[in-house]
Amino acid sequence: MPYSRADQIRQQLAEYNSAEILQALSELGERNTKGLLKPLSYDPEKSYNDLSSVMLDASPLSNTQLAPIGKAAHSGFPAIELAWREHPDMLSFVADEIKRKGTNFTLVTNHSNVIDIALVLGAMRLEMASWIDGEAFSHSSGLIISRGIVTTQAVFESMGFSMPTVEAIQLLSNVFFSFPTTPTVRSKGFPREMVKLSNELTKLELDNFLQLGGRVLAIAPSASKDQLLRDRVLMQPLKNGTMDLMKGWVIPVAVTLDGPEPPACKVLPWRYVETYSDCHDIMREIAKECTRQTLVVHNYHDKPSLFEEAKSSLARLRKD
Questions:
Q1: Which pLDDT band, with edges at 50, 70 and 90, does 319 fall under?
Q2: Chain centroid to CA 298: how far?
Q3: Tell me, what's the pLDDT at 114?
Q4: What mean pLDDT value characterizes the chain?
Q5: Which burial class, exposed, middle or buried, applies to 86 when counting CB atoms under 10 A from its CB (0-12, 13-18, 19+)?
Q6: How far from chain centre, in Å, is Cα 176?
Q7: Model-level pTM?
Q8: Per-residue pLDDT tens for 183-228?
Q9: Torsion angles phi and psi, residue 17, rounded to 5
C-alpha cells in the first residue's frame, strides 16, 4: 500500500534532530516564559517532542474540573467569561450549527500573550455548557499554536502543581502545531525544508480535522506575537494560509489581560468571511477594540511594516 503524503512527510521529518530544533526554539521563546509559563527541559519520551508529531488529541476534563484551572491560569479569566456570557443567542446559534449542520467556526483573537487564545477558548467551552457537553466540545475544537510551546510548562502556583503547557491545553482542546516563520525565527537558521514540511503536515492534519464538520478552530494570528513599539502595539499582517482557514463563519475576540488597564475582553460581532479583505477588516476591528480597552494604540496593517521588511531582508542576507 503506497504511503500517503502525510506519511511521506513524517518520514522526512524523522531525519532531523528534534532535540536540537526544540532547543533553538526554546532560546527564541524565552520572552514567553513569564507569569504562568516557565522553561521546560526537553524530554524525548514525550511524543509531541518529535517533529513528525504536529497534532495532539484532546484529553478533556469535565467543566467542573476545568473551571478552577482557568482562574488559576490568569486573574483576568473572569473578564473573558463575562464577555461570552453577554452572547447567549450567538452561542445557541453556534451550538445548533455545530450539532445539526456540521458547520465549522473559526475563533480569532489578537496575540498579546501566548496563552490568551487558550483562555478564550476555555471560557467559551464553559459558557456553552447549556447547549454542548464540555468534553464533546473539546473533542470538536482545535487550537493552532506555535511549535515552541512544547518548550514551556504551566505552573499553577495557587493550585500547587505544574505540567507541560501543551498538556494543559489538551485538557480543553485538540492541539495543532505551526512552525513559526517570522524574521526572528528565520534568522536562527532552521532548515527551510524542515519548516516547510512541518507546516505542510499541519495543514494536512487541519484539513482532515475540518472536513469532519462541526468544528471550532481557535487561532491568534499575528505572526508569533503582537509587537510593542514605543507607545503603540503593532499587530502583524495575516498570511494567506491563515486567511484561507478564516473563510467561513468567524467569531472575533479582542482580549487584553496584561497591560496597564484592568483585564478586558470583548466578543465582537460574528460574521461570514469570504475574502482576504474581510479577514483584514476583522483584525482592524480587533485592533480598534484593543485600543479602547488598553488606551494604548493598536495598529493592524495588511502588509508588513518597513521595519519588519528590513528585519526580514537582513535575516536573509545573513543566512546567504
A1: low
A2: 19
A3: 80
A4: 90
A5: exposed
A6: 9
A7: 0.91
A8: 767 777 889 999 999 999 999 999 999 999 999 999 998 755 778 7
A9: -85, 100
Span 163-181, average pLDDT? 95
Q: Locate the domains of the chain by residue range.
A: 5-222+241-279
CATH of 5-222+241-279, picked from 3.40.630, 3.40.1130, 1.20.81, 3.30.70, is: 3.40.1130
What is the DSSP secondary-structure string of the chain?
-PPPHHHHHHHHHTTS-HHHHHHHHHHHGGGG-STTEEE----TTSGGGSTT--EE---PPPHHHHHHHHHHH-TTHHHHHHHHHT-HHHHHHHHHIIIII---EEEEE--SSTTHHHHHHHHHHHHGGGTS-HHHHHHTEEEEEEGGGGGEEEEEGGGTEEEEHHHHHHTTSEEEEE----HHHHTTT--HHHHHHHHHHHHHHHHHHHHTSS-EEEE--BTBS-EEETTEEEEPPPPHHHHHHHSEEEEEEEEE-SSSSPPEEEEPPPEEE-SHHHHHHHHHHHHHHHHHHHSSEEEE-SS--HHHHHHHHHHHHHH-
Is pLDDT above 60 for 318?
Answer: no
